[in-house]
Amino acid sequence: MKSQTLPIDAVIPEFLAAVQTNSNVILHAEPGAGKTTRIPLSLLEQIPVTDGKIIILEPRRLAASAAARYMSTLLGEDVGGTVGYRIRFENRVSGKTRIEVVTEGILTRMIQNDPFLEGVAMVIFDEFHERSIHADLGLALCLDIQRQVRDDLKIVVMSATLDHLPLSKLLEDPPVISSRGRSFPVELFYREASGTGRLPDRVNAAVHTALREAEGDILVFLPGAGEIRSCFARLLESGLTNHGVELHQLYGELPFEKQQSAIMPTVARKVILSTSIAETSLTVEGVRVVIDCGLSRRLQHDPNNGMNRLVTVRESKASAIQRAGRAGRTAPGVCYRLFGQHTFNGMTAFSPPEIVEADLAPLLLELSAFGVPDPSLLSWIDVPPEAAVTTARTVLQQLGALDEQSRITGIGRKMASLPLHPRLSALLLKGVQCGSADLASDLAALLSERDLVRRGDERFGVDHVGISVSERMELLHLWRSTKRTASTVDLNAMKSVDKVAGDLRRMAGKSSIPSREVPQNALDISLLLLTAMPDRLACQREGGSERYLLANGRGARLVRSDELVSSRFLIAVTVAGGESSEGVIHLAEKIELATVRSVLKEKIVSGDSCYWDQRERRVIAVREERFGSLLLSSQSIQPDRSQVAKVMLDAVRQSGLSLLTRNDSFLQLQARIMLIKLYFPEVDLPDVSDSGLLASLEQWLLPPLETGRTISRPDAIDCHELLQNFLNYGQNKKLQELAPTHLVVPSGSRIRLDYCQGDRPVLAVKLQELFGLAETPAVAAGRVPVVLHLLSPAGRPLQVTQDLRGFWDGSYHQIKKEMKGRYPKHPWPDDPWNALPTRRVKQKNEIYT
């Protein structure tokens, strides 16, 4: 078949010459240049059969198969001859194949099987500007092979829009060949949203405008399958297909046949609702109108909580330019942008590379299978973030794919050979081991494909299907047995899951015919899920609600309350990160504690725990089972006395002594010791200030706790006795001598001193008991006069003084005048110096003058 001349043809001689003399070449070709199909074919004559085949990587399955089929047509052959392709679960190559078009994940699997890439002469990375994680990984591995063992391996990187400087540095300054594209003028119209216009309504209006004003098929870019279905329903309601217009959907999870049907030429005019799958690689013949909503959907991974969050974001400028260019591939076209010029000007230049946002568990497993335990050992344009690598390594170790030294295990190699996320590979292998390969294949397919249940589809209304995995399995088996399903179920997703499940059954060595019986044993489902997602084990928070704690330490809540709320333990299969730190569980399965123990028995940590319960204000001793951040079970036990003592000691220290009952006896003793230490620093006494006692808890509080009777509460401890015992005999004797607890006053009474009312002790005594005493009493060998609180006969304060002599000569006489009439039975002598001190009332005939 003779093909038309394309812009890339003009630079092919220069490209071939560069390839002849260089190991690495960069080819920059604008959209429509024809690089995807022309470049591989041009290399057939230059690269002899004996040198090996050419591997060309495409980012998507549809683009890979379409490119292989087109090149085969140009050669007049069927696909699988000179040109073949390999995509997930489909292999169209033969012994004659010299050009093999593969999706990017296939290359890493090829390298696992053949670390030297023997029989491969060249690897071409097409559409590298998309910066998928598989493309970055494939290039890093190929460069390592080239530099270590295969200096004859040639690498070509092709892109339409790319910042070449980092790539050129990585490839050690290779030649850069540039080609113009084949494009026709595209007229741009900006249709910024006004008010609260809904996307389906805006798309519907734009499509009908384009049908009236422009020629050719219409390609509508939308962020995801949900928006595609909503807009599809709105266009059907508008009667679009009643006027001979074909309406198609195009997105990655759609069955392969429907994807191909969307891009095949037809006589009727077409409207294609597509995700970014049609942004590059594919040329959809007949498209002369593009409608761009300006949005794209990107999966972001948070390494701090292990959650993936699907976010809708503004597309980049490069993406907007690529989309508009689709209208001018075969003739002049029109692009309606459903946003304003200012919005376009504010877009980022390029989308961030997937490797800086993605879940790195698959990448790390691929590298480990290749023999590279640490990504930093390879050359990257963007080095994988260390936090994400650490999270991925933890996940793989939990799955048993890596050992404690981060080396790949035997089961890890089996997991790496499967076209699944490591979690689902572990699930499938566990199912085969347990004799449940059919169930495991269904589960792995169910979780690897798009959810069966429609969400946000206005055409079908509110989704009443629950959120458990078991319910999804029942939907799948119901459809298999009856071909009937609810309106809320996505039929395309159902067919895709069924096909993938069959492919996985074949890989597991089972018949491709699925079981049509609904699995009754939910225990098997939860067991397999926990094998794949141990970090997603969740335990209901106290009080019983829709809020759960995950094993990785993060909180999450069920998207809505249903029968799962009654389950203490769940496996949170799909957890989306929310705006806050709490995630949202969209898909889950209940699990019994016995199953948790059987699956995680080697990872559950069992042990006795002794701790202070602040609410009950006592020491609690329990025997616990823990996994990650979860407390699986707890039962009370009799604690060891030394454990109780240490826990209480720590609790007292944390409370700043407030947990102890420090009664007046304790406080008086503490104040007496502190007074003597102040005035007699040479006396050997311990520091019994609060800070001093906290620093010496091990000396005065711990021994009695360890040796005395069992005390469950610190407020039951006699702190006065402990502090008294903290002093030896000599210290106690000295303390009593210098800071006595009582003083004997002239009346003969033994009055208690209060050391806690200030810097000096207080002696509260009835005035009549001090008659004749001139000097103020003192302690500390006379260094510290007491503060006298002189009391009325009723015990009420009349005077506070430290100058007793001055009191008798002065204010006593005024007090006598006031009190004599109030307390006539008590003595109020005119001459207190010579009166007899007494604690009694006046005797009969006793006269005080």
Characterization of the model:
It contains 29 helices and 31 strands. The strands form 7 sheets. Strands 4-3-5-2-6-7-1-8 form an 8-stranded mixed β-sheet, sandwiched between helices. Strand 6, helix 5 and strand 7 form a beta-alpha-beta unit. Helix 2 crosses helix 3 and helix 22 packs parallel to helix 26. The radius of gyration is 43 Å and the shape is elongated. About 2% of the residues have low confidence.
Mean pLDDT: 87
Q: What count of helical segments does DSSP give?
A: 29
CATH architecture of the largest domain: 3-Layer(aba) Sandwich
Highest CATH level, the class of the largest domain? Alpha Beta
Helix-strand makeup class: alpha/beta
How many structural domains are formed by the residues? Answer: 7
The CATH topology of the largest domain corresponds to Rossmann fold
Strand content range = 15-25%
CA gyration radius, whole angstroms: 43 Å
Low-confidence spans: pLDDT under 50, at least 5 residues? Answer: 456-464, 515-520
> Per the principal axes of the C-alpha atoms, what is the gross shape?
elongated
Describe the largest sheet.
8 strands, mixed
- Superfamily (CATH H level) name of the largest domain: P-loop containing nucleotide triphosphate hydrolases
User: Span from first to last CA?
Assistant: 144 Å
